[in-house]
């Protein structure tokens, strides 16, 4: 019988990871998404909760690319335009 260590995200208990770093990275992404969502809901009162949450998660998942684009290489955003759209 084999023993397997798995990690769960504290912010998303349904997600299981094989490594602690993966779980920590996922938790940090969700924490950032939560804060971005709160900002969006405050600034854009016409957004639904779902829209604000979806945008927050999207921005958080793409934070590295977006940060580079905001630092002066806007052409990097074409990568997001070329990425498949989730269904």
Helix segment tally: 4
State which percent range the strand residues make up: under 5%
The average pLDDT is 91
CATH architecture: Orthogonal Bundle
**SSE series:** EEHHHH
Poorly predicted regions:
none
Strand order of the largest sheet: 1-2
Rough outline: globular
What's the number of structural domains? 1
Q: Fill in the CATH topology.
A: Arc Repressor Mutant, subunit A
Radius of gyration: 16 Å
**Looking at this structure, what is the CATH superfamily?**
PSPTO_1197 like
Instruction: Please summarize the sheet with the most strands.
Output: 2 strands, antiparallel
Helix content: 55-70%
What does this structure look like?
- The chain is mainly alpha-helical and 87 residues long.
- The protein has one domain: Arc Repressor Mutant, subunit A (Orthogonal Bundle), CATH 1.10.10.710.
- The protein is 57% helix and 5% strand.
- It has helices at residues 20-43, 49-61, 63-70, 78-82, and strands at 7-8, 16-17.
- It has a two-stranded antiparallel ribbon with strand order 1-2.
- Helix 1 crosses helix 2 (49-61).
- The longest helix is centred in the middle third of the chain and has 24 residues, at 20-43.
- The model has no long low-confidence stretch (mean pLDDT 91).
């Amino acid at each position: 019988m084999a023993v397997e260590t798995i990690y769960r995200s504290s912010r998303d208990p349904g997600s299981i990871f094989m490594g602690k770093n993966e779980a920590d990275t996922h938790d940090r992404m969700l924490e950032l998404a939560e804060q971005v969502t709160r900002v969006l809901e405050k600034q854009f009162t016409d957004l639904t909760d779902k829209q604000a949450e979806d945008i927050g998660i999207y921005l958080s998942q793409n934070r590295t690319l977006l940060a580079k684009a905001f630092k002066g290489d806007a052409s990097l955003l074409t990568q997001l335009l070329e990425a498949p759209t989730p269904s």
